[in-house]
Amino acid sequence: MISLSPNLPPDKQREMLRQMLTIRRFEERASADYLGGKIYGVVHCYIGEEAVAVGVCSALDRTDRIISTHRGHGHCIAKGADLNRMMAELYGRQAGYCKGKGGSMHIADFGIGMLGANGIVAGGISIITGAGLAAQMEGKGGVAVSFFGDGASNAGPFHECLNIAAAWKLPMIYVCENNMYAAQTPAAETHALSDVAARAAGYGIPGVIVADIALVKPPTLGPDGSTTITIEALTVAAD
C-alpha cells in the first residue's frame, strides 16, 4: 500500500482526474452500445462513482488485491486493467479477459490484483476477506479491499467477514459505495442505522464516512502489518 499525502502534487491530481474521465468515457460508450443492441447480456455502469475507485486504488500497490460488484468496470480501470480487453469482454469476444464468456460482471485480472467482479449481492466480500488472510500470511505488507454497495451491508457475509477480519486482525479495507439505493429500494427503508460505517463499531474496528472525494486514503498499517477498517463513501449512480 502506498502512503499518500492529503496534499497531492499537481501531477498526481491530474493523473487521478484522467483516470476518472477514462472511466466515465468507457462507461458512456458501453452504455450507448448496450442500449444500441451491440452488447448482449447486461451492463451496469459505474457513472457517478468514479472518485471512489480512483481514490482507493491510487493508494494501493499493484500487488494489493481488490474485488468488485456488478458495477465493476470502474474498479478494473482504476486498478490498471487493459481497456481493449475489457471492451472485448463486454462484446463477447475471444480477446476479452474471460474469452468473452464472462461479460460485464465477471472481469478479472489476477496480474494486477483484480480478483473479479460479482453479480451476487455481497458475493465478493467473503472471497476478498480470504485474500486478506493470504496477505497476512504472506507478510509483505499487502492489503485487500472489498468494494460493495449499501444493499450488501444488510447481508450475512458483510457481518461475518467484518467479525473474522477484526478477530484475526486482517489487513482489510471494506469500502461501501453508498448510493442510497439497493437496486430500486431506498436504503432508508431497509437500514436500521442510517450510516453503514457505524456498524463497524460492533466489531471493534474503525468506521469512517467520506463524501465522494477523489482520494479515499486507507489507514496506516499496524506494527504487525495488520489492520481492518470500514469506509463508507457517499456517492450516486446514474442508473
- In the CATH hierarchy, what is the architecture at level 2? 3-Layer(aba) Sandwich
Helix content range of the residues, please? 25-40%
Radius of gyration: 17 Å
Uncertain regions spanning at least 5 consecutive residues: 214-226
Strand content: 5-15%
Question: Which CATH top level class fits?
Answer: Alpha Beta
Order of helices and strands: HHEHHHEHEEEEE
CATH topology: Rossmann fold
Shape: globular
Distance between the termini: 32 Å
- The number of helical segments is 6
Judged by helices, strands and strand pairing, the structural class is alpha/beta
- As laid out across the biggest beta sheet, the strand order is 1-2-3-7-6
On the 0 to 100 scale, the average pLDDT is: 87
In CATH, the homologous superfamily goes by the name Thiamin diphosphate (ThDP)-binding fold, Pyr/PP domains
Total discrete domains: 1
Number of strands: 7
The quaternary structure here is single chain
Q: Give a short account of the largest sheet.
A: 5 strands, parallel
